[in-house]
Design a protein that fits this description.
With 147 residues, the protein is mostly helical. It has helices at 2-9, 13-21, 39-54, 59-107, 134-140, and strands at residues 28-29, 35-36.
């Protein structure tokens, strides 16, 4: 009821009617159209009282303050949502990067300088058959000249 809310907020019932007509407060209505004030409504009335009496603000200023506070709340919710989305995307990108790294590890071969994979040239007298040896030439089917 308006008289109870006015008493809780420390103001005259007519003041509440003015605030309602300005759109500063919108109490629920009963089936018989009686104003039903919630604790949130009473807190808002106290906030209006604080802005007008302690800070000397007029009702247009109070309306602007409430408008800006509402916008700030919307921006905070939006920022929170964007931060959650960014964190999710960051996790997805990290997982994708790890997947790509794993796939590249399977495809990559360590670098070896040119010529390092070729066998070292054999020298005469190291126990290997020399390409100029008569035995090797005989195997190849070429005539062997005696030296």
């Amino acid at each position: 009821m308006i008289s109870v809310a006015a008493e809780l907020a420390g103001m005259h019932p007519q003041t509440l009617r003015i605030y309602e007509s300005r759109g500063l407060i919108t109490p629920m209505r009963s089936p018989k159209n009686t104003r039903l004030y919630s604790q949130e409504d009473v807190d808002r009335l106290r906030r209006i009282q604080e802005l007008t009496t302690e800070l000397g603000m007029n009702l247009a200023g109070v309306e602007k303050v409430f408008e800006l506070e509402g916008e700030l709340d919307r921006m905070r919710r939006r920022m929170s949502l964007l931060e959650r989305q960014a964190a999710k995307l960051e996790q997805e990108m990290a997982a994708e990067l790890e997947r790509v790294k794993r796939s590249f590890r399977a495809e990559l071969v360590p670098y070896q300088p040119p010529g390092s994979l070729l066998p070292a040239p054999r020298r005469k007298g190291d126990g290997c058959v020399d390409s100029d040896s008569p035995a090797l030439k005989a195997e190849s089917g070429k005539p062997v000249a005696n030296a």
